[in-house]
Amino acid sequence: MRIRIIGGGLAGPEAALVAARMGAEVDLYEMRPVRTTPAHETGDFGELVCSNSLKSESENTAPWLLKQEMRRAGSPLLACADASAVPAGHALAVDRVEFSRLIGERVAAERRITVHREEVTQIGAGSGFEDGITIVASGPLTSNALSEEIARLTGSEHLAFYDSISPIVEADSIDRERVYLAARYDKGTADYINCPMTQGEYEAFHDALMAAESVEAKEWEKLEYFPPHASTADAWGPRYFEGCLPLEELARRGRETLRFGPMKPVGLIDPRTGKMPWAVVQLRVENLRADSYNLVGFQNHMKFGEQARILRMIPGLENAKFLRYGQIHRNTYINAPRVLTRLLNMREHPGIFFAGQIAGVEGYTESIATGMLAGLYAAIMAQGGVPEPVPRGTALGSLVRYVTEADAKHFQPANITFDLLEPLDERTRRRVRDKRERHRMQCERALAEMDGWLSPAIHREQGTGNRE
């Protein structure tokens, strides 16, 4: 039985490579470049349109734990990320061009994967694939036609929110005399460029953001709803994901909000003064050549001219050359708790799986993770087996549990956090007061459960892939 996978972003190629490695025949569909999206620039697999970071590699953090579990399961795309990593302190960041190239190479080299460059608009009855297995990994920018098909198939209205893209500046245009290299609290290597601000500079920057002219939402982006903090006059407007708010939206929430968010100076002592700045803008390297940097957490919805004017108020960026301006676009996802099982397949249509952001996760690593699981489950099912869900005690299992069992009435996409992980028993919590030690114990338990779940057959086929 062949497996059809829709989407060439992160979850789709991951699912395809995992399923093919398990012995399944795969048809991988991607509509780009035949039909593009408002945010993508290429037709490449795994193109990253927002940040280039796959989050923290600090030991015993939730993002680290998720990646460790994926490495032990032999995640193909995480191997590509490791191979294309760029300096980023305690985070795993990639050269996005090299990352896509490595994914493309792996897909092309897998004889069990057939790539189709065409748009898929039907996945249920009448699609010509009723007897097969389908993984929908079409991503947050799913086409209108496929979105309508998904809404029809799920039997409930699908949801939408807005996500953002950070600006990128040319490395040579940064004034190195006004900035300094440091990692927060000296964790990891000093790979971030830090632009320090005085109180006066910060307040002038905040005032400029408050007066900035924003881009008007396109018709295809508009969503009729009442966003937080909005009046009835704002019924047509953006529904932002709280974990990726535009810079100007943060500024509107209070004069000090940015100083407690993306411009937080805590742990970033300026070595030239020995003091902590009033606020800091951090720049993270974009590629292996280190010829470009992105402004961390500076996604925004301002007009390009406004961005150039206001962002050049940042010390060190007075003459910045922008390779990409910040943008905002609408993301689409299903109400997963209403329709999906713990195997990420539909309750009403067991042969149809969902993975990636369309399934209700947020973040690159989380998207790859659900693609890995969907590919594994689909391959086992295609070969007549019965998949065993990943254990609840793992980071993978905790993420899936949230996606499939959260309150459907208030469902929003989520990143992996310790809040999602299974807590320690009450006796242990009373005995162990230190939060870091609790997290270490949770991670140790999760990795043990992950090792127990991975069967000898999967270990032989995929390898442990563990990178300590």
- Low confidence ranges: 223-236, 459-468
Give the mean pLDDT: 88
Number of strands: 16
Query: Any idea how many domains?
Result: 2
Q: Could you say which structural class the secondary elements and strand pairing correspond to?
A: alpha/beta
The largest β sheet comes out as: 6 strands, antiparallel
Provide a descriptive summary of the structure in words.
The protein is α/β, with parallel strands linked by helices. The chain folds into two domains: 285 residues, FAD/NAD(P)-binding domain; 167 residues, Elongation Factor Tu (Ef-tu), domain 3, CATH 2.40.30. Helix content is 31%, strand content 15%. Strand 4 and strand 5 form a beta hairpin. The longest helix is centred in the last third of the chain and has 19 residues. The C terminus is likely disordered.
